[in-house]
Amino acid sequence: MPSWGENVEIIGLLAALGTALSWATSSLVSTGPARALGSFAFNRIRQISVFIMLAALVTILGRWQGFAREDVLLMVASGLVGIFLGDTALFATLARLGPRRTQLVFSSHAPITVILGVLFLGERVSIYTGLGSMMVVLGIWIAIVYGKRRAQLHTWEQVRGPLWVGVAIGLIAASGQATGVLIAKPLMNAGVDPIAAAALRVGAAGFCLTAIRAWPLKIGVAKSPYTPRLLGLAVLSGFLGMGLGMSLYMIGLAHTSAGNVAVLSSTVPVLTLPLMWITTRERPALLAFVGAFCAFCGTAIIILS
Predict the structure, then answer these.
(1) Backbone angles phi, psi at 192, to 5 degrees
(2) Helix %, strand %, coil % of the chain (to 5)
(3) Fewer C-beta neighbours within 10 Å, C or N terminus of the chain?
């Protein structure tokens, strides 16, 4: 019979898997409205709705205290790079490549984080980290080049525009995510409240996305009219990805090791495939599973090394 400690560990592991499932589901929900509205318009609605959710929660819990002016500026910078740039590029990638390819390219944030850590933090790379990085790159290459069957006709498998452009934007998204994490890392290690920090990051991104809309630039204008369905999907995407997903992530950290949570939550590319199979009723190619699993294993090696 499992002990109480083992039960607590199981709760943490299930929460980490729930995080990956939330993020994978969010990517499927986001693809349609991101293509319809454009990445800037979609991300603007998403970040504003998430900020309202997080700000209300932080206010209710009374967790705004403890932020020095320098801390706020650091979190704003993290939000501008990681969310304003990173998430906007991520949804632009979704609109071009669909959820399967996007999640694979975005998994490159793990080796990119390693590279940035070496360049700017003086960190050393072990042989295992190098092996993991190569596995991530190999997995992405296999799944993108050979991961689609000719019988797959669903719009999520369609590539809009040149493939290399979508991959390049996806790498920008992964780089923004990695840089945003590195900027926020010292404060998070110092024990800053994670929910309040997330609210500041999201708020900064939402403000900039709103400011862009006020400028006479076509890039910030929605490609199609805001309908209740598109607005609802944008809010749902934010709730799944940042509301439910991050809450489960924190629950996982409270009940099991950070390594376990990081590894299990990085199964998003793998979980995306069966979810697409269920939704589209089109079986993904075998090499799509092989590439996704290879990228996941590489990410796990990087995290645990």
Answers:
(1) -65, 140
(2) 80, 0, 20
(3) N
Identify the band that residue 30 occupies on the pLDDT scale cut at 50, 70 and 90.
very high
* 290 contacts 142 by C-beta, under 8 angstroms: yes
* Domain residue ranges of the chain, discontinuous segments joined by +: 38-221+272-304
Amino acid 76 reads V
pLDDT category at 36 given cuts 50, 70, 90 is very high
Q: How far is it, in rounded angstroms, from Cα 82 to Cα 69?
A: 20
Q: What CA–CA distances, in Å, run from 223 to 24, 188, 219? A: 25, 37, 9
As a dihedral over the C-alpha atoms of residue 102, residue 104, residue 110, residue 112, rounded to 10 degrees, the angle is -60
pTM: 0.84
**Cα dihedral 149, 153, 158, 162 sign:** positive
Q: What stretch of H or E contains 102?
A: helix 86-106
Per-residue confidence (pLDDT) for residue 222, from 0 to 100: 84
